[in-house]
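Morning!

This is the sequence you dropped in the shared folder:
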Amino acid sequence: MVEKALKRASAPRQPMPIQDPEIRKKNFNEVPLGYSPEEAIQEAKRCMRCKRAVCVNDCPVGIDIPGFISLIKVGKFNEAIKKIWEKSSLPAVCGRVCPQEIQCEGMCIVGKKEERPVAIGNLERFAADYARMNGIIGHPPQAEPTGKKVAVVGSGPSGLTVAGDLIVKGHAVTVLEAFHKPGGVLVYGIPEFRLPKDMVFHEIARLEKMGVKVQCNYVVGRIASLDELFEIGYDAIYLGVGAGLPTFTNIPGENLNGVLSANEYLTRANLMKAYLFPEYDTPIPKGKNVAVLGAGNVAMDAARTAIRLGAESVRIVYRRSREEMPARAAEIRHAEEENVEFVFQTNPTSFLGNKEGLLVGMECQKMEPGEPDESGRHRPVPVKGSEFKMDCDLAVISVGSGANPLLTKSTKGLRLNVREYIIASETGKTSKKGVWAGGDIVTGQATVILAMGAGRRAAESIHKYLTLGW
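The structure's back. Tokens below.
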């Protein structure tokens, strides 16, 4: 039996069809093109259906991975997406942006025995896309209405997961979103070429059909406080507001025209649709020579956006080595294919401007690895006498983000840590009765799927509170 399973798994992994780099550099269309049904079936056949499915253990929302893959293998695509919907409200999103290589695929037994693991993310994406293109709808059976009302503040991945889980359990759910479009970081942070907005809106529309209400342009902390939300009838509140406050480098010249945060740059390009000029005339600095500071997924998104907006050269400037880059391998590879240049072990020390206050370059210094820091990585140490100048007329800072204090500062009884993130238990409980929190506002900037996992745990805790008490 084991020998047969290994034989099935020995087929090569199906490559994901993608746009040619020279073509995609000039458009904002999605780069990966998705599997055909035949390719999906072939890839699904590589799954060994392990008795102890360790891949499921490393999925933060606990999707039955062998279950949905076995359905794809026999062409039961309708049943496959319904199997995923049992645990995840956002399969089209997760199939595109989750770091499967360090989670489910990282634990795949096929990957341990063969060259590459089963393409779990690609198959999840296929199931979601097939459902959308073929009008397949459905969701887990919904419980009878409980009469309880829950406010979910923020419509990012964490908040949408809570909304999807609680509506199934019979509670009335309203999502309160500060922006004019729902989706949170999925819409304002991740570019169209990596996660098309229509995919996100389709997932949200499915939740609305289940009964979730979405109210945009509602800034909690300004329009209403948490206490006022309780007064108008909500029985529990979930805070999934993310960590959208930009972090800057605090080096000289940061106020020059041409220096901006990745948060602002990507929000203008994505949510405000600057990439659709002239249809949307959203102001956005284009830049001929662009430098992006940082090496995470957000930095890759900013660099690849700059390429598409017409930059002649784009550099990723990172103070550590290539091996220490936090971005996904696929995003790094796609950036390289699109001629983004990587400048490693380099740290800007000041921004340089002209008489008009416009950015014209950066003063930089080479770095070398020092002693390990608290994360276990080598602390970058400046190399004496290695200073040099780098020309650039646009610098995008992508070195992390923090908690926006608007909501937290206006709420009494909500404990925060030294970095002003909300302190919450493993189940999302905060120090304020009836209030839960999860995702980046608790952990700091992390991945979509980890935020969804936090939402899943919090939803279960909220349900117990509404039915059993605090």
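Headline: The mean pLDDT is 93.

More detail when I'm at my desk.
O.
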